[in-house]
Amino acid sequence: MAIEIERKFLVSGDGWRAAAERSEAMAQGYLNQVDGLAGGDLASVRVRLEGPRAALNIKSCEPGRSRQEFEYPLPVEDARALLALCTGGRVEKRRHYVRHGAHLWEVDEFEGDNAGLVVAEVELSELEEEFQRPAWLGPEVTELQRYYNIALSARPFREWSEAERRGLAST
Asked: Which of 52, 53, 57, 122 is 20 to 30 A from 73, comparing alpha carbons?
């Protein structure tokens, strides 16, 4: 079984940009109901175009740092056709890969209805793994489900209150 352990943070400033090793455009959508976290679904089913690649991703819906995750490559044309079948809005972003210390960070700069949101994620090998915090890292939002991509497809960043945008609200 594949387990993903990740932590998610808001980004403070542009200090990460000079260290970005590469960047890729991404578009993704969900084939199941986008209220899966609140609606009782046990998993989300996502189609993603990532640069020249495409994948089908199935991720368990429990909140927090650790989830089951399965990913399968798809032909790009199949992924485009599946994206047309997705529920909710499409999540579009540019992912920047930034090495800091022993970890490769993924900094997601959202576009479209989620423009203005920038988050950084780090994948870890174990739940309590230590990592160096870059100076550009803001508040942790790992436990806040509204920052999950499936939630962003249902209720995009442009609809959030100012408190939600700063990571201050608890939902």
From this structure: 122
Strands 43-50, 53-60: pairing is antiparallel
Tens-digit pLDDT profile for residues 1-45: 588 999 999 999 999 999 999 999 999 999 987 664 555 678 889
Residue 137 to residue 133: CA distance in whole angstroms: 7
Residue located via tokens 């998993």: 43
Structure tokens at 144: 């806040």
Q: What pLDDT is stored for residue 133 in this prediction?
A: 96
Q: What is the four-CA torsion angle of 26, 134, 122, 146, rounded to 10 degrees?
A: -70
Determine the distance from the C-alpha atom of residue 17 to the mean position of all C-alpha atoms in its chain, rounded to a whole number. 18
- How far out from the chain centre does Cα 136 lie? 18
Determine the Cα–Cα distance for residues 82 and 95; give it in Å rounded to an integer: 21
Give the separation between CA 46 and CA 29, rounded to whole angstroms: 6
